[in-house]
Write a structure and sequence with these properties.
The protein is α/β, with parallel strands linked by helices. The chain has four helices and seven strands. Bound molecules: zinc ion.
């Protein structure tokens, strides 16, 4: 199985498999993948001298000190067991300050809207995930998770969870 010298094809296919794998790793507090949340900053693959492929994955947390980080890292590391050609994996965390809600993909925004989470723009405006109104008010700084605040929509009256716009706390 182990051959001397890993082909470029193997590196490319392992990277593709790893990216596919990472696209299925979800934030434990939100049913949205880390890829759609904009947490994946980079993937590198290199050939190991002893055979197989080593990968480096760099991630950025959505909130400083978020406990979800530990679970995400564990799930990301499990790629070593899931992918046949991957034999080594390093996880690197970028400073939390490098993430903001503008990193969330349009797919991610849609998935968050479905679970009642509003994503504010970096400049602050958040739309109600239920009715689309901009009349969203914050009731509490503390939501179900550190990265979210609790509020409600003045238009439809429904409760709204609001993501903090930056990982350093989202205070504007
Ligand atoms: Zn509403």
């Amino acid at each position: 199985m182990v051959t001397v010298g890993v082909s470029q094809d193997l590196l490319a296919s392992t990277e593709a498999e790893l990216r596919e794998y990472l696209a299925r790793v979800e934030d434990p507090e939100l049913p949205v993948s880390i890829t759609e949340l904009g947490m994946l900053r980079g993937v590198t693959v290199t050939e190991r001298e002893s055979g197989g492929v080593a990968a480096g994955v760099s991630l950025v947390p959505t909130f400083l000190g978020c406990s979800a980080q530990l679970f995400i890292e564990r799930d990301v590391r499990a790629a070593v067991d899931a992918l046949e050609d991957l034999t080594e994996l390093h996880v690197e965390w970028c400073p939390a300050t490098e993430w903001s809600t503008s990193d969330i993909t349009s797919v991610g925004r849609e998935q968050l809207r479905h679970v009642g989470v509003a994503v504010p723009d970096p400049d602050g405006g958040a739309r109600c995930p239920h009715c689309g109104s901009e009349r969203v008010v914050v009731d509490s700084e503390f939501g179900a998770a550190l990265c979210r605040r609790l509020g409600h929509c003045e238009a439809c009256g429904d409760p709204v969870e609001i993501m903090r716009s930056t990982s350093s706390g989202g205070r504007r």
